[in-house]
């Protein structure tokens, strides 16, 4: 066996082109599939790393009486949380939380930290314990905190040093009583958990229409999901009868936590997994074609070895050893590629796209073995078939017909493999073309605001009482005026709810002159707060009326600016200026006079519709005005102004937390998932096309070598080189035509899935199909043209003499 391995290595080294193509094909197919499958396994399939993870549920609100026929809200109101916790017999525990990135005042600095206010039983629902210290207890509300290990090390030097330290959030002092291990970061990369009362309280916890809390629950052992659903339905029915004004048409839905986390990315990941599986199929077909061609070229060698006494099994075993060497080396390259691909997906592109459970993604040995086994199986199968045929023919006949190759079923099989490669690569290319055109459409859509030369600073100043909130608002006004004085800043304004940013709110509103009854459906709008100069700084045109001014303070008549969509929605055919409007942003009962109408904007991403938006002055809604975005229009590069602005803010107040980005980055991040899909499917389609071209090249090379004597006779009898070229290309065209027809059918069959991922076009877009068909046909025929051109230049005398 060692002798055969050495001989196999020497043989493969002497045929570098075959070896290189086979190894690259195998490495790309196995590596890409292992990386993609590892992501799918870590995100979608692997159980959550909590004890009794299958019993942890996310509780959602379902409104059945909306104009859209039903709406799921991934949050609950405070009273609904309390009622479910008290009345659900199928749930062992119910807990709730809210929060996000907020400013945290550390002993020596302030910083934005992913922070969540959690009920004191939060960690017991997940069954996790701190790495150091203790978890929260019932007496910890408003005074104790648990910190993540990485934040503890970054802020206090070590995890042990963090215990007993204090920090402040919104002016409340919290003592760190525990340190969580880095593997626990629920929810959403949390690093700081602050204890609140286990029952939601004022000011927002008493409203049955304010969905401010996310809730998770632990089912009792032995209870099924359907049993828990029936329990929640009974509670919802009881609340509908007791509170018809607020709970009519409202019910609750329990979803397994893992399903809730991965649901938004499930379709994308399964789609990419299907795409990369096609790459593996094409790779296997290409390897099969390579081995068939190699077996045909080695007929004379096999015949000589048989004539010298080698047994059939010895010859077959030698060929299998060569396939095994290719599989081992190619598998090692694929393993390295899988590690690199997984690292790229988790640490860069996938992280920007917001994939959940990144910490659970790792290269999976089992998936690697499956991918390698599939390729190895194809190698063995397509080594055995021609090898067994070769050792069964007469050695004398083989030596006489050397160079004529294997015919019949082997040739038909190779043709079928080429058709498969062309079909699968075309289907992938069509998908890539559709996603590319969709993504280009996203980048070119009119956002309703300008993104270039806009620096965005998030600023958070702590506050607890109304006077403190008012003071925070005045301070941020001063900060805006200070950054305006920095060289390179041409204008600046503060806001809460900048498009594509982290802040924002929405809800129902009422306008004067319209019948409004408690419990009836209300028109919906996005709520945004802004200071003077916001619209001009953002490049949002004011269609009518005026902007907010410094005089629109808390002690002045409340005013508002509405978007054109809201004007059409609630004031059709009227001038909305002077009308009054009311919303429940902060529970204020004060009506606001409409003083302006602004152009529509896309709030969440370029794919968002132009929705109704209600703008209000920051100073008139102070409870939402201490954590804002300050947008700066700059004459210089926005990144060059970060440090001067940071120093200016520190000189004003070192306890105001800040962080920086640009509006272009915010918009780019909002379309990160479409970008991920487009980039990966384009990569997979490119690999598939390269492999398909290699397959076509291999088939046509084999065909031309096999038919060189025939072409020589044709040329000797007067056929032109162009005629020989056309003869060879006609066969390639026939194979391509069959593959293209199958590929179009496959792409058309996947249209329903593709439609869910596209913006501005359908999955059956004729223009995309036409361009991709033209490109793929050209590339495949180009791959066939090279051996065809070589055949048309055959020397008749040399070819006939060799025959």
The value of Rg in angstroms is 34 Å
Which word captures the global form? elongated
Please estimate the helix content. Answer: 40-55%
The main pleated sheet reads as:
11 strands, mixed
Mean pLDDT: 84
Number of helices: 25
Compute the separation of the termini in Å.
37 Å
User: Would you identify the regions where 5 or more consecutive residues have pLDDT less than 50?
Assistant: 402-407
Counting DSSP E segments of at least 2 residues, the number of strands comes to: 22
Amount of beta strand: 15-25%
Structural class determined from secondary elements: alpha+beta
Domain unit count: 4
Any chance you could write out the topology, listing elements then pairs?
Elements (H helix, E strand, L loop, with lengths): L1 H13 L1 H30 L10 E8 L7 E3 L4 H10 L3 E15 L4 E10 L2 H5 L5 E2 L10 E5 H8 L2 H4 L3 E4 L2 E9 L11 E5 L17 E6 L5 H18 L1 H4 L2 E7 H41 L1 H9 L4 H41 L12 H28 L2 H6 L8 H36 L9 E7 L5 H19 L4 E8 L8 E7 L12 E7 L3 H5 L3 E4 L13 E5 H7 L9 E4 L8 E7 L14 E5 L9 E8 L7 H11 L4 E6 H8 L1 H35 L1 H9 L4 H29 L1 H5 L10 H27 L3 H7 L1
Parallel strand pairs: 4-9, 6-8, 15-20, 17-19
Antiparallel strand pairs: 1-2, 1-10, 1-11, 3-4, 3-10, 5-8, 6-9, 7-8, 12-21, 12-22, 13-15, 13-21, 14-15, 14-18, 16-19, 17-20, 18-19
Helix pairs in contact: 1-11, 2-9, 2-11, 2-12, 9-12, 9-14, 9-20, 11-12, 14-20, 14-22, 14-24, 20-24, 21-25, 22-24
